[in-house]
Design a protein that fits this description.
Elements lengths: L3 E6 L2 E6 L2 E5 L6 E2 L2 E3 L14 E3 L10 H4 L7 E5 L2 H4 L10 E5 L4 E4 L2 E7 L17 E6 L3 E4 L9 H5 L4 E5 L14 H11 L3 E5 L4 E3 L8 H4 L1 H12 L4 E2 L7 E2 L6
Helix pairs in contact: 4-6
InterPro entries: Metallo-B-lactamas, RibonucZ/Hydroxyglut_hydro, UPF0173_UPF0282_UlaG_hydrolase
Protein name: MBL fold metallo-hydrolase
Pfam families: Lactamase_B_2
């Protein structure tokens, strides 16, 4: 069965592999605090159907409690170790099967194995969270090996930790005019792509949410990262097929035989 990747916007994707549906950083809201969804409608109802959901870190645009509450009862949920202590609302999602993981942990889900890997990103629940949890990426291994980076900056051991993969879901932007430490912009994401060297890549984490009232402030940071990543990837990793998806669009990338 072919592996299929669907991008719902921001860092939310469905990876369907070997009959198992994996959902990344579920975020279904039209508005989140000072952010509003500026491109694409809310994800289709089928986006909420998953065998396992992966949460990369504690920031509210990645660990969004109202969106997690929309997942069907019994859905498996992998979160950074310590997340239920740092975010007490997680403990109230009693219908979900929550498992805490740290880099190096492997969890079997159906015919897949999900391995947590490191990410270079702030692990606190901002703005006041005193608890630090590891920010994570995940490698989903089945018919394909798919790397979901979550939010991360470049770090020396990135490629070694991720290992050989077929597909990389890489953040290439953000939700505001400026990216701080621990993020990938389009150029740095292309550098990461060259280091990881997958067969295919899908740019994510851009072109979805933007602060209310800042539409005219550096608008290219909202619109341009996907195209800029494809341009930089063609220069730095020309052997990698880049699939720039619209919201709700899917791709069946080539995988190793």
């Amino acid at each position: 069965m072919p592996v299929e990747i669907t991008w719902w916007g921001h860092a939310t994707c469905t990876v369907e592999d070997s009959g198992v549906r994996v959902l990344t950083d579920p975020l279904f809201a039209r508005r989140l605090a000072h952010l509003r969804r500026r491109r694409g409608g809310a994800p289709a109802p089928r986006a909420r159907v998953a065998d396992v959901a992966l949460v990369s870190h504690l920031h509210a645009d990645h660990l969004h409690l109202p969106s997690l509450a929309e997942l069907p009862p019994g859905t498996r949920l992998l979160v950074p170790r310590g997340a239920p202590e740092a975010v007490p609302g997680l403990r109230r999602l009693t219908g979900l099967d929550v498992t805490e993981v740290a880099p190096g942990d492997e969890v079997p889900v159906g015919g897949l194995t999900v391995r947590a890997v490191s990410a270079l990103h702030d692990g606190r629940r901002l703005p006041l969270g005193p608890h630090r949890c590891p920010a994570l990426g995940f490698v989903v291994s089945g018919a394909a090996r798919t790397y979901f980076a979550g939010d991360t900056g470049l770090f020396d051991s990135l490629a070694d930790e991720v290992g050989e993969v077929d597909v990389a879901l890489l953040p290439v932007g953000g939700w505001g005019p400026y990216l701080g430490h621990g993020h990938l912009d389009a150029r740095r994401a292309a550098v990461a792509l060259a280091r990881i060297a997958p067969r295919s890549a899908v740019p994510v984490h851009y072109g979805t949410y933007w602060p209310i009232g800042l539409d005219a402030v550096r608008p290219h940071e909202f619109h341009a990262p996907g195209d800029e990543f494809a341009r930089q990837a063609a220069r730095l990793a020309p052997e990698v097929a880049v699939h720039r998806l619209g919201h709700g669009e899917s791709v069946r990338p080539e995988v190793a035989k």
